[in-house]
Write a structure and sequence with these properties.
WD40_rpt; single chain; about 475 residues; 32 strands; WD40/YVTN_repeat-like_dom_sf; JINGUBANG-like; mainly beta; six-stranded mixed beta sheet; 4 helices; WD repeat; Transducin/WD40 repeat-like superfamily protein; about 45% strand
Length: about 475
Protein backbone atom coordinates (compact mmCIF):
# COMPACT_ATOMS: atom_id res chain seq x y z
CA UNK A 1 0.00 0.00 0.00
CA UNK A 2 1.58 3.22 -1.14
CA UNK A 3 2.21 5.96 1.34
CA UNK A 4 1.53 3.68 4.27
CA UNK A 5 3.11 4.43 7.60
CA UNK A 6 2.28 0.97 8.89
CA UNK A 7 4.34 0.00 11.89
CA UNK A 8 5.48 3.53 12.58
CA UNK A 9 4.70 5.49 15.71
CA UNK A 10 2.12 7.86 14.34
CA UNK A 11 0.51 9.56 17.30
CA UNK A 12 2.78 12.54 17.82
CA UNK A 13 2.49 15.32 20.34
CA UNK A 14 2.14 18.99 19.54
CA UNK A 15 3.53 20.77 22.57
CA UNK A 16 2.09 24.12 21.56
CA UNK A 17 -1.43 23.04 22.50
CA UNK A 18 -0.67 20.23 24.91
CA UNK A 19 -3.18 19.84 27.70
CA UNK A 20 -5.53 22.54 26.53
CA UNK A 21 -9.12 21.91 27.44
CA UNK A 22 -11.74 21.75 24.73
CA UNK A 23 -13.25 25.13 25.45
CA UNK A 24 -9.80 26.72 25.02
CA UNK A 25 -9.17 25.21 21.60
CA UNK A 26 -10.03 28.11 19.38
CA UNK A 27 -11.21 27.67 15.83
CA UNK A 28 -8.57 30.12 14.69
CA UNK A 29 -6.57 30.29 11.44
CA UNK A 30 -3.42 29.35 13.37
CA UNK A 31 -5.03 26.25 14.85
CA UNK A 32 -6.54 25.17 11.55
CA UNK A 33 -3.25 25.61 9.72
CA UNK A 34 -1.33 23.49 12.21
CA UNK A 35 -3.97 20.81 12.03
CA UNK A 36 -4.64 20.60 8.33
CA UNK A 37 -1.43 21.53 6.50
CA UNK A 38 2.19 20.42 6.46
CA UNK A 39 4.40 23.22 5.24
CA UNK A 40 7.78 21.75 6.15
CA UNK A 41 9.04 18.61 7.90
CA UNK A 42 8.89 19.17 11.67
CA UNK A 43 11.70 17.95 13.87
CA UNK A 44 10.34 14.82 15.52
CA UNK A 45 13.76 13.50 16.52
CA UNK A 46 15.60 10.37 15.39
CA UNK A 47 13.26 8.02 17.25
CA UNK A 48 10.11 9.21 15.50
CA UNK A 49 10.20 6.55 12.81
CA UNK A 50 10.79 3.26 14.56
CA UNK A 51 13.40 1.21 12.76
CA UNK A 52 14.31 3.98 10.31
CA UNK A 53 17.89 5.08 9.70
CA UNK A 54 18.69 8.35 11.46
CA UNK A 55 20.45 9.92 8.49
CA UNK A 56 17.77 9.07 5.97
CA UNK A 57 15.63 12.06 4.94
CA UNK A 58 11.92 11.51 5.53
CA UNK A 59 9.16 13.10 3.49
CA UNK A 60 6.48 14.77 5.64
CA UNK A 61 3.87 12.95 3.55
CA UNK A 62 5.20 9.62 4.84
CA UNK A 63 4.97 10.72 8.43
CA UNK A 64 1.91 10.15 10.50
CA UNK A 65 -1.16 12.19 9.65
CA UNK A 66 -2.22 11.87 13.29
CA UNK A 67 -1.51 14.84 15.51
CA UNK A 68 -2.15 14.97 19.23
CA UNK A 69 -3.84 17.89 20.91
CA UNK A 70 -3.42 16.67 24.46
CA UNK A 71 -0.69 14.91 26.40
CA UNK A 72 -2.39 11.62 27.22
CA UNK A 73 0.19 10.60 29.81
CA UNK A 74 -0.29 13.88 31.65
CA UNK A 75 -4.02 13.31 31.49
CA UNK A 76 -3.61 9.90 33.16
CA UNK A 77 -1.42 11.41 35.88
CA UNK A 78 -3.92 14.14 36.52
CA UNK A 79 -6.67 11.57 36.87
CA UNK A 80 -5.16 10.55 40.19
CA UNK A 81 -5.44 14.04 41.62
CA UNK A 82 -8.00 14.26 44.39
CA UNK A 83 -10.54 17.06 44.38
CA UNK A 84 -13.73 17.76 46.26
CA UNK A 85 -15.32 19.76 43.49
CA UNK A 86 -17.28 18.04 40.75
CA UNK A 87 -15.80 20.31 38.06
CA UNK A 88 -12.28 19.06 38.78
CA UNK A 89 -13.14 15.48 39.68
CA UNK A 90 -14.64 14.65 36.29
CA UNK A 91 -12.97 15.10 32.92
CA UNK A 92 -13.90 17.85 30.49
CA UNK A 93 -14.77 16.92 26.92
CA UNK A 94 -11.65 17.54 24.84
CA UNK A 95 -10.20 17.13 21.38
CA UNK A 96 -7.52 14.44 21.61
CA UNK A 97 -6.20 14.20 18.07
CA UNK A 98 -6.73 14.81 14.37
CA UNK A 99 -6.15 12.66 11.33
CA UNK A 100 -5.72 14.20 7.91
CA UNK A 101 -5.03 12.27 4.76
CA UNK A 102 -5.38 13.95 1.40
CA UNK A 103 -7.67 11.29 -0.04
CA UNK A 104 -10.92 13.17 -0.15
CA UNK A 105 -13.94 13.71 2.04
CA UNK A 106 -14.63 11.29 4.89
CA UNK A 107 -18.04 9.70 4.35
CA UNK A 108 -18.03 6.72 6.71
CA UNK A 109 -16.53 5.42 9.96
CA UNK A 110 -16.76 2.17 11.89
CA UNK A 111 -15.01 1.16 15.08
CA UNK A 112 -14.43 -2.23 16.65
CA UNK A 113 -12.38 -2.37 19.82
CA UNK A 114 -9.04 -0.74 19.06
CA UNK A 115 -9.63 -0.69 15.28
CA UNK A 116 -11.01 2.30 13.37
CA UNK A 117 -12.16 1.97 9.75
CA UNK A 118 -12.39 5.11 7.61
CA UNK A 119 -14.04 5.40 4.20
CA UNK A 120 -13.68 8.27 1.76
CA UNK A 121 -14.38 9.25 -1.82
CA UNK A 122 -10.92 7.92 -2.74
CA UNK A 123 -12.48 4.40 -2.69
CA UNK A 124 -9.97 3.47 0.02
CA UNK A 125 -10.88 1.93 3.36
CA UNK A 126 -8.10 2.64 5.87
CA UNK A 127 -7.70 0.79 9.16
CA UNK A 128 -6.12 2.42 12.21
CA UNK A 129 -5.05 0.58 15.35
CA UNK A 130 -4.13 2.52 18.48
CA UNK A 131 -3.41 5.58 16.34
CA UNK A 132 -1.16 3.72 13.91
CA UNK A 133 -2.06 3.03 10.31
CA UNK A 134 -2.64 -0.70 10.54
CA UNK A 135 -3.92 -1.76 7.14
CA UNK A 136 -6.25 -0.88 4.32
CA UNK A 137 -7.98 -2.07 1.18
CA UNK A 138 -9.44 -0.48 -1.93
CA UNK A 139 -12.59 -1.04 -3.95
CA UNK A 140 -12.67 -0.88 -7.72
CA UNK A 141 -15.24 1.89 -7.90
CA UNK A 142 -17.74 3.87 -5.89
CA UNK A 143 -16.87 6.10 -2.95
CA UNK A 144 -17.42 4.49 0.45
CA UNK A 145 -20.75 5.69 1.86
CA UNK A 146 -21.13 3.16 4.70
CA UNK A 147 -19.06 0.64 6.68
CA UNK A 148 -20.39 -1.98 9.08
CA UNK A 149 -18.60 -4.81 10.86
CA UNK A 150 -20.11 -8.28 11.37
CA UNK A 151 -17.63 -10.41 13.29
CA UNK A 152 -14.84 -11.31 10.83
CA UNK A 153 -16.65 -9.72 7.86
CA UNK A 154 -16.69 -6.08 6.86
CA UNK A 155 -19.48 -4.76 4.62
CA UNK A 156 -18.99 -1.52 2.69
CA UNK A 157 -21.75 0.34 0.84
CA UNK A 158 -20.77 2.43 -2.18
CA UNK A 159 -22.01 5.21 -4.38
CA UNK A 160 -22.21 2.81 -7.33
CA UNK A 161 -25.04 0.95 -5.57
CA UNK A 162 -22.95 -2.10 -4.72
CA UNK A 163 -22.16 -3.68 -1.36
CA UNK A 164 -18.72 -5.20 -1.07
CA UNK A 165 -17.78 -7.85 1.46
CA UNK A 166 -14.32 -8.18 2.96
CA UNK A 167 -12.88 -10.80 5.28
CA UNK A 168 -10.00 -10.59 7.73
CA UNK A 169 -7.27 -13.16 7.09
CA UNK A 170 -7.06 -15.89 9.74
CA UNK A 171 -3.27 -15.88 9.39
CA UNK A 172 -2.66 -12.15 9.38
CA UNK A 173 -5.28 -9.87 10.94
CA UNK A 174 -3.96 -6.88 9.00
CA UNK A 175 -4.82 -8.48 5.65
CA UNK A 176 -8.30 -8.08 4.20
CA UNK A 177 -9.51 -9.67 1.00
CA UNK A 178 -12.73 -9.15 -0.87
CA UNK A 179 -14.91 -12.26 -0.76
CA UNK A 180 -17.98 -10.98 -2.53
CA UNK A 181 -20.06 -8.20 -4.02
CA UNK A 182 -23.80 -7.89 -3.43
CA UNK A 183 -25.70 -8.92 -5.35
CA UNK A 184 -23.45 -11.88 -6.12
CA UNK A 185 -22.81 -12.79 -9.74
CA UNK A 186 -24.47 -16.18 -9.22
CA UNK A 187 -27.66 -14.63 -7.85
CA UNK A 188 -27.63 -11.92 -10.49
CA UNK A 189 -27.45 -14.41 -13.38
CA UNK A 190 -30.06 -16.71 -11.84
CA UNK A 191 -32.41 -13.82 -11.18
CA UNK A 192 -31.97 -12.33 -14.65
CA UNK A 193 -33.45 -15.46 -16.29
CA UNK A 194 -36.99 -14.52 -15.26
CA UNK A 195 -38.60 -11.41 -16.80
CA UNK A 196 -40.77 -11.06 -13.68
CA UNK A 197 -37.65 -10.23 -11.64
CA UNK A 198 -37.25 -6.90 -13.45
CA UNK A 199 -38.82 -3.76 -12.02
CA UNK A 200 -39.33 -0.46 -13.78
CA UNK A 201 -37.35 2.36 -12.18
CA UNK A 202 -37.70 4.97 -14.89
CA UNK A 203 -39.64 5.22 -18.09
CA UNK A 204 -38.42 2.47 -20.42
CA UNK A 205 -35.76 1.48 -17.88
CA UNK A 206 -35.88 -1.75 -15.87
CA UNK A 207 -33.45 -3.33 -13.42
CA UNK A 208 -33.35 -6.52 -11.37
CA UNK A 209 -35.09 -6.16 -8.03
CA UNK A 210 -32.04 -7.52 -6.18
CA UNK A 211 -29.82 -4.64 -7.37
CA UNK A 212 -29.66 -1.07 -6.05
CA UNK A 213 -29.57 1.29 -9.02
CA UNK A 214 -28.54 4.36 -7.01
CA UNK A 215 -26.11 5.18 -4.19
CA UNK A 216 -26.11 3.16 -0.97
CA UNK A 217 -26.86 5.57 1.88
CA UNK A 218 -26.44 3.32 4.93
CA UNK A 219 -26.09 -0.25 6.22
CA UNK A 220 -27.44 -1.87 9.37
CA UNK A 221 -27.34 -5.33 10.94
CA UNK A 222 -30.01 -7.29 12.77
CA UNK A 223 -29.31 -7.86 16.45
CA UNK A 224 -28.16 -11.44 15.85
CA UNK A 225 -26.13 -10.30 12.81
CA UNK A 226 -27.84 -12.78 10.49
CA UNK A 227 -29.48 -10.10 8.31
CA UNK A 228 -27.92 -7.11 6.59
CA UNK A 229 -30.08 -4.13 5.64
CA UNK A 230 -29.08 -1.68 2.91
CA UNK A 231 -30.84 1.61 2.23
CA UNK A 232 -30.43 3.55 -0.99
CA UNK A 233 -31.27 6.71 -2.83
CA UNK A 234 -33.31 4.48 -5.16
CA UNK A 235 -36.16 4.75 -2.58
CA UNK A 236 -35.78 1.13 -1.44
CA UNK A 237 -34.18 -0.88 1.30
CA UNK A 238 -33.07 -4.46 0.81
CA UNK A 239 -32.60 -7.38 3.18
CA UNK A 240 -29.63 -9.73 2.71
CA UNK A 241 -28.79 -13.00 4.41
CA UNK A 242 -25.29 -12.70 5.84
CA UNK A 243 -24.48 -16.42 5.61
CA UNK A 244 -24.76 -16.71 1.81
CA UNK A 245 -25.22 -13.05 0.70
CA UNK A 246 -28.61 -13.80 -0.86
CA UNK A 247 -31.04 -10.93 -1.29
CA UNK A 248 -34.23 -11.91 0.51
CA UNK A 249 -36.39 -8.83 0.06
CA UNK A 250 -36.55 -5.46 -1.64
CA UNK A 251 -39.02 -2.95 -0.22
CA UNK A 252 -39.97 0.27 -1.99
CA UNK A 253 -40.15 2.24 1.22
CA UNK A 254 -40.44 5.94 0.36
CA UNK A 255 -41.30 8.48 -2.33
CA UNK A 256 -37.74 9.84 -2.35
CA UNK A 257 -34.22 8.80 -1.38
CA UNK A 258 -33.87 6.68 1.77
CA UNK A 259 -31.21 8.57 3.72
CA UNK A 260 -31.18 6.50 6.91
CA UNK A 261 -32.09 3.06 8.25
CA UNK A 262 -31.62 1.57 11.70
CA UNK A 263 -32.66 -1.76 13.17
CA UNK A 264 -34.53 -0.99 16.35
CA UNK A 265 -36.28 -3.05 19.01
CA UNK A 266 -39.11 -5.60 19.05
CA UNK A 267 -38.33 -6.65 15.48
CA UNK A 268 -38.85 -3.14 14.13
CA UNK A 269 -36.86 -1.42 11.38
CA UNK A 270 -36.92 2.39 11.06
CA UNK A 271 -36.32 4.22 7.78
CA UNK A 272 -35.94 7.96 7.14
CA UNK A 273 -36.20 9.66 3.79
CA UNK A 274 -35.77 12.84 1.82
CA UNK A 275 -39.56 12.79 1.49
CA UNK A 276 -39.69 13.99 5.12
CA UNK A 277 -41.04 10.80 6.68
CA UNK A 278 -39.86 8.24 9.21
CA UNK A 279 -41.52 4.87 8.72
CA UNK A 280 -41.61 1.73 10.85
CA UNK A 281 -41.39 -1.74 9.34
CA UNK A 282 -42.25 -4.90 11.27
CA UNK A 283 -40.29 -8.12 10.76
CA UNK A 284 -42.40 -11.26 10.94
CA UNK A 285 -41.74 -14.96 10.51
CA UNK A 286 -43.26 -16.32 7.33
CA UNK A 287 -42.71 -19.95 6.48
CA UNK A 288 -39.03 -20.74 6.79
CA UNK A 289 -37.98 -17.13 6.47
CA UNK A 290 -38.93 -13.61 7.46
CA UNK A 291 -40.80 -10.81 5.74
CA UNK A 292 -41.10 -7.10 6.49
CA UNK A 293 -44.42 -5.25 6.56
CA UNK A 294 -45.20 -1.56 6.85
CA UNK A 295 -46.35 -0.70 10.37
CA UNK A 296 -46.81 3.07 10.67
CA UNK A 297 -45.47 6.49 9.75
CA UNK A 298 -43.75 7.96 12.79
CA UNK A 299 -43.04 11.41 11.34
CA UNK A 300 -44.16 13.44 8.36
CA UNK A 301 -42.65 16.86 7.69
CA UNK A 302 -41.52 19.13 4.87
CA UNK A 303 -37.77 18.92 5.47
CA UNK A 304 -35.69 15.83 4.73
CA UNK A 305 -34.93 13.17 7.32
CA UNK A 306 -31.16 12.77 7.32
CA UNK A 307 -30.13 10.48 10.22
CA UNK A 308 -31.53 7.88 12.62
CA UNK A 309 -30.18 6.20 15.75
CA UNK A 310 -31.43 4.00 18.58
CA UNK A 311 -29.92 4.46 22.04
CA UNK A 312 -27.81 1.75 23.65
CA UNK A 313 -30.54 0.24 25.82
CA UNK A 314 -33.07 0.34 22.96
CA UNK A 315 -35.58 2.65 24.58
CA UNK A 316 -35.46 5.74 22.33
CA UNK A 317 -35.34 6.36 18.58
CA UNK A 318 -33.66 9.62 17.48
CA UNK A 319 -34.19 11.34 14.13
CA UNK A 320 -32.08 14.14 12.64
CA UNK A 321 -33.41 16.43 9.92
CA UNK A 322 -32.20 18.97 7.39
CA UNK A 323 -33.66 21.79 9.52
CA UNK A 324 -31.09 21.08 12.26
CA UNK A 325 -33.56 19.47 14.69
CA UNK A 326 -33.37 16.09 16.43
CA UNK A 327 -36.75 14.55 17.29
CA UNK A 328 -37.09 11.51 19.52
CA UNK A 329 -39.70 8.93 20.46
CA UNK A 330 -39.84 6.74 23.56
CA UNK A 331 -40.43 3.00 23.49
CA UNK A 332 -41.89 2.91 27.00
CA UNK A 333 -44.63 5.33 25.90
CA UNK A 334 -45.60 3.32 22.80
CA UNK A 335 -43.34 5.46 20.62
CA UNK A 336 -45.01 8.72 21.56
CA UNK A 337 -43.08 11.84 20.60
CA UNK A 338 -40.73 12.70 23.46
CA UNK A 339 -39.38 16.09 22.39
CA UNK A 340 -36.97 18.01 20.18
CA UNK A 341 -33.26 18.71 20.63
CA UNK A 342 -32.41 22.14 19.21
CA UNK A 343 -28.64 22.28 19.00
CA UNK A 344 -27.82 22.99 15.35
CA UNK A 345 -28.40 25.74 12.82
CA UNK A 346 -27.90 23.54 9.75
CA UNK A 347 -28.76 19.96 8.79
CA UNK A 348 -28.03 17.10 11.18
CA UNK A 349 -26.02 14.65 9.05
CA UNK A 350 -25.25 11.90 11.56
CA UNK A 351 -26.27 10.56 14.96
CA UNK A 352 -24.66 8.17 17.44
CA UNK A 353 -25.47 7.00 20.95
CA UNK A 354 -23.43 5.60 23.85
CA UNK A 355 -24.54 5.05 27.43
CA UNK A 356 -26.72 7.99 28.42
CA UNK A 357 -25.18 10.20 25.71
CA UNK A 358 -26.40 11.21 22.26
CA UNK A 359 -24.09 12.75 19.63
CA UNK A 360 -25.37 14.80 16.68
CA UNK A 361 -23.04 15.89 13.87
CA UNK A 362 -24.11 18.68 11.56
CA UNK A 363 -23.46 20.65 8.41
CA UNK A 364 -22.73 23.58 10.76
CA UNK A 365 -19.41 21.78 11.50
CA UNK A 366 -20.27 21.15 15.15
CA UNK A 367 -21.05 18.05 17.22
CA UNK A 368 -23.55 18.39 20.05
CA UNK A 369 -23.09 16.09 23.03
CA UNK A 370 -26.38 15.47 24.84
CA UNK A 371 -26.89 13.69 28.16
CA UNK A 372 -30.27 12.19 28.95
CA UNK A 373 -31.24 12.66 32.59
CA UNK A 374 -34.68 11.77 33.95
CA UNK A 375 -36.27 11.93 30.53
CA UNK A 376 -34.72 15.28 29.64
CA UNK A 377 -31.68 16.05 27.48
CA UNK A 378 -28.98 18.52 28.52
CA UNK A 379 -26.29 19.67 26.08
CA UNK A 380 -22.90 19.04 27.68
CA UNK A 381 -20.71 20.37 24.88
CA UNK A 382 -20.57 21.51 21.30
CA UNK A 383 -17.40 19.96 19.89
CA UNK A 384 -15.90 22.35 17.36
CA UNK A 385 -12.78 22.12 15.24
CA UNK A 386 -13.91 20.71 11.91
CA UNK A 387 -13.86 23.10 8.97
CA UNK A 388 -16.46 21.20 6.97
CA UNK A 389 -19.76 19.40 7.59
CA UNK A 390 -19.56 16.49 10.04
CA UNK A 391 -20.68 13.49 7.99
CA UNK A 392 -20.18 10.45 10.26
CA UNK A 393 -19.57 9.41 13.87
CA UNK A 394 -18.27 6.33 15.68
CA UNK A 395 -18.07 5.78 19.44
CA UNK A 396 -16.06 3.32 21.57
CA UNK A 397 -16.07 2.82 25.33
CA UNK A 398 -12.83 4.04 26.95
CA UNK A 399 -12.45 1.64 29.86
CA UNK A 400 -8.68 2.06 29.99
CA UNK A 401 -8.75 5.75 30.83
CA UNK A 402 -12.02 6.02 32.73
CA UNK A 403 -11.70 7.24 36.28
CA UNK A 404 -13.45 5.81 39.30
CA UNK A 405 -17.12 6.73 39.15
CA UNK A 406 -16.76 8.14 35.64
CA UNK A 407 -17.48 6.65 32.24
CA UNK A 408 -15.48 7.98 29.31
CA UNK A 409 -16.03 7.45 25.60
CA UNK A 410 -13.78 7.90 22.59
CA UNK A 411 -15.70 9.63 19.80
CA UNK A 412 -14.45 9.69 16.21
CA UNK A 413 -15.91 12.22 13.78
CA UNK A 414 -15.42 12.24 10.02
CA UNK A 415 -15.92 15.37 7.98
CA UNK A 416 -16.07 16.71 4.46
CA UNK A 417 -12.97 18.72 5.43
CA UNK A 418 -11.06 15.44 4.75
CA UNK A 419 -10.22 14.89 8.42
CA UNK A 420 -11.09 12.53 11.25
CA UNK A 421 -11.00 13.89 14.78
CA UNK A 422 -10.81 11.97 18.02
CA UNK A 423 -12.51 13.30 21.14
CA UNK A 424 -12.59 12.21 24.75
CA UNK A 425 -16.08 12.57 26.20
CA UNK A 426 -17.19 11.95 29.77
CA UNK A 427 -20.76 11.17 30.77
CA UNK A 428 -20.18 13.16 33.96
CA UNK A 429 -18.71 16.23 32.28
CA UNK A 430 -20.21 19.50 33.43
CA UNK A 431 -22.55 21.30 31.02
CA UNK A 432 -21.13 24.33 29.28
CA UNK A 433 -21.32 27.62 31.15
CA UNK A 434 -23.94 29.82 29.46
CA UNK A 435 -22.79 33.08 28.00
CA UNK A 436 -24.59 36.39 28.36
CA UNK A 437 -27.79 35.64 26.49
CA UNK A 438 -28.15 31.86 26.25
CA UNK A 439 -29.28 29.02 28.45
CA UNK A 440 -29.17 25.25 28.00
CA UNK A 441 -31.09 23.42 25.31
CA UNK A 442 -33.53 20.87 26.70
CA UNK A 443 -36.23 18.74 25.17
CA UNK A 444 -38.67 21.61 25.74
CA UNK A 445 -36.71 23.93 23.49
CA UNK A 446 -34.49 25.96 25.84
CA UNK A 447 -31.21 26.83 24.19
CA UNK A 448 -27.59 26.04 24.98
CA UNK A 449 -24.68 28.25 23.89
CA UNK A 450 -22.24 27.44 21.14
CA UNK A 451 -18.67 27.76 22.34
CA UNK A 452 -16.82 30.94 21.52
CA UNK A 453 -14.78 29.08 18.90
CA UNK A 454 -17.85 27.97 16.97
CA UNK A 455 -18.41 29.73 13.64
CA UNK A 456 -21.50 31.85 13.13
CA UNK A 457 -24.05 30.92 10.49
CA UNK A 458 -27.05 32.35 8.74
CA UNK A 459 -30.51 31.64 10.06
CA UNK A 460 -31.67 28.04 9.85
CA UNK A 461 -33.49 27.20 6.65
CA UNK A 462 -36.21 24.62 6.28
CA UNK A 463 -34.55 23.00 3.26
CA UNK A 464 -31.06 22.53 1.94
CA UNK A 465 -29.89 22.54 -1.63
CA UNK A 466 -29.96 18.74 -1.71
CA UNK A 467 -32.28 16.44 0.20
CA UNK A 468 -29.98 13.46 -0.29
CA UNK A 469 -27.25 12.97 2.32
Amino acid sequence: MKGSSRGNHIFSEENSIRGQKFDKLQNSPEHNESTFTISSPPDYGPDYLMGAEEAAPVSPLKKSPWSAHMNISDDKNNSNDSSETTNERFSPNVLMGSLVREEGHIYSLASSGDLLYTGSDSKNIRIWKRHHEYSGFKSNSGLVKAIIIAREKIFTGHQDGKIRVWKVSSKNASNHRRIGTLPTLKNYIKCSMKPSNYVEVKRNSKVLWIKHFDSISCLSLSEDQTLLYSASWDKTFKVWRVSDFKCLESITAHDDAVNALVVGFDGLVFTGSADGTVKIWRKELQGKGTKHFFSQTLLKQECAVTALAVNSNATIIYCGSSDGLVNFWEREKNLQHGGVLRGHKLAVLCLATAGCLVFSGSADMGICVWRRVDGDHICLSVLTGHTGPVKCLAVERDNENSRSGEQRWTVYSGSLDKSVKMWRVSEQAQPMVPNQKHQHYTSDGYCVPMLSSAPSFASRGGKMGSRRF
